[in-house]
Amino acid sequence: MAIIYIDEVQGSDAPGTSGAESSPFKSLGEAFLALGSDNEYRVKKKDDEEYKPAAKSALKKAAAYVEAQQKKRIAAAKRAEKESQEEAAREAALEEAKKIPLVEDPALPKATPINITETDPNVVGQLRKSQDEPKEGVRRVRVQGRVHRVAKQGGLVFVTLRRGLDFMQCLLSGTLSKTYDALTLTRETSMEIFGELWEVPAGARAPLDRELRADFFRIIAKAPGGLDAFTNRVPVDGDTQTLLDLRHLTLRHDKPSAILFVRDVLESAFHKAYKEMKCTKVSPPALVQTQVEGGATLFKFDYYGETAYLTQSSQLYLETVLPSLGDVYCIEKSFRAEKSLTRRHLSEYTHIEAELDFITFEDLLDHLERLICRVMEIVMENPVAAKAIQQYNPEFKKPTQPFKRMRYTEAIEWLNKQDPPILNEEGSPHVFGDDIAEAAERKMTDEIGCIIMLTHFPAEIKSFYMQRAADDSRVTESVDVLVPGVGEVVGGSMRTWDHEELLSAYKREGIDPSNYYWYTDQRKYGSTPHGGYGIGAERSASEEEHEPPFDNEEDFASTMMAGSSSVAYERGTFSVRDILETPARVVRCGRSREAVEENRKPSSRDRASKPLSMIICRQNVQNILAKETTEAQESSGAVKSLSAPEGAMWPCDGRLISSTYLQKTV
To answer: Would you say 393 and 545 are in contact if contact means Cβ atoms under 8 Å apart?
Structure first.
């Protein structure tokens, strides 16, 4: 009988452990399992200085553990044997299936190609109801699409075929269901199916209450199975970064497809509403040499030796065509160098803008009410869009007039009257002149529970082109339209239309008027009171689809980091000092660079400003990266691959990198 040692602190249950005093086990159960019960067992617990004989109760518990493990092993062996037999049977069945020819019966009539949603009896023929009924009026048809779902039941294979947002249930039976292609059918395989359309049996459900019973099918292009299968690469509940990296595949899922369709219906609704309002569509330039919303978010590039930018807004150009066309609008892309990962700060987005001539501020507000309500009315008239909206946002209700109108000063008063007060970004009560943070604005909108037109913002927090109010020169004739659950969806104002006032605004903002000569000329040649606004299509879609604050509304979302999470960054790269001085745990920090530089934890204003921008360091970076090594890499100008804890996120001049490996460009 050997003496076996168990050290519950220093021991190890790894394979190769002998149980000698120099190589003790960590647990009595594993020692029993490895060496059996016919030994003398001595145990050293956490506070023991020497080994002691194992207690009878501990030996009894270890024996029970061994018995349980042996039962598990027997069950696992049986399960493995069964799976092996099933796999062998499956492989044998597949080999047999390869012998079954898949050939179209030449005696069958030629199939009529139809769209998945085609219902015209003159095209699809009559639906069959039973085998006993005569086939008069029944036609053989052919449909093409991608496999959306496959279900095998007995000797039947049910295939849901997809063509865009449209679906058709198809049934493979008899010899067809036993062919190799039928048994190995995978999601996203493109195929065509031939057969007759039947009414679905009573109690069954299928798109348009019919199914295509196949007499032949042909694979057009087979999608992979196994580990590379579509559902493995882009699972519906996959992590956000993976889904963004594989956006080209993610778009095939039900919800992204529905959102893209609603986006199309939404844009069409805007076009229709604008035409009803006698607005003319124009196409302003995307390459410009002037700024509209400030230089901090401009994408700058060299334009044949001169500085140019990607447009932030088409507003100034729309104003120039007011005298030519009257009320105008555009639906174009705008670009802003936003350091954010939310839908509120996309680098590229669809911008719906309009300018209206000969109006007052009240006219502008009335126009926005009519436009928003009419657009939503048109969208909900589309049955497919309405169904998608109700499915993904059951609480959505069409907006109705009138909207609640609230001045900026009233909003400040409301925020300060709450119990407790809703504070500004500095942690103090709001005062006149504060730029109300998004979080506070949304909380107010959600609490009030209706669409709000927030008006008359202070001039110092608004753009140079906004007209000051006649009754209070401290504020502008400006408006933000706020929607519960979404926040701001529209921003607009009356435009400064007096020539001298505009020149004063240039001077006040430090703007060189020579670059805006063409804009200034509008005030010299028959200026008029006019105003306009901008709407983000992504935010409007989020109102309908009730999307979380990320970029599902964009076909291919453009944020500061919309591509692979393991790419080397060429712009705004982070320094070694930034990494090494990062606090051990920084969570929900919206202003990541400030938090890093000040070596502090996030404040309430960080969380309020950008709640989704965060840095999560699971251990101090110094435990991951040797400073000497990285400094050497930095000085040599090499690209260094940095090992990091899985799921860690790192600062990069306000950017975030989320990956098991980080790459640094220096």
So the answer is: yes
Q: What topology is assigned to 256-403+450-545 in CATH?
A: BirA Bifunctional Protein; domain 2 (3.30.930)
Distance, in Å, from the CA atom of 129 to the CA atom of 59, rounded to the nearest integer, reads 71
> Which is it for the CA torsion 267, 271, 273, 279, positive or negative?
positive
Question: What CA–CA distance (Å, rounded) separates 655 from 574?
Answer: 9
107 CB neighbour count, 10 Å cutoff: 5
pLDDT tens profile 324-375: 999 999 999 999 887 766 656 688 999 999 999 999 999 999 999 999 999 9
pLDDT one-digit tens code per residue, 420-455: 999 998 999 999 999 999 999 999 999 999 999 999
The burial class, CB within 10 Å (0-12 / 13-18 / 19+), for 522 is buried
- Return the H-helix or E-strand segment holding 500: helix 499-509
Please give the Cα distance from 384 to 462 (Å, whole number).
Answer: 40
CATH for 112-230, options being 2.40.50.140, 1.10.3720.10, 1.25.40.10, 3.20.20.10: 2.40.50.140
501: its two tokens: 């006032």
> Which residue intervals of 546-601 are DSSP H helices?
576-580, 592-598
Separation of alpha carbons 579 and 575, rounded Å = 7
DSSP character at residue 468: B
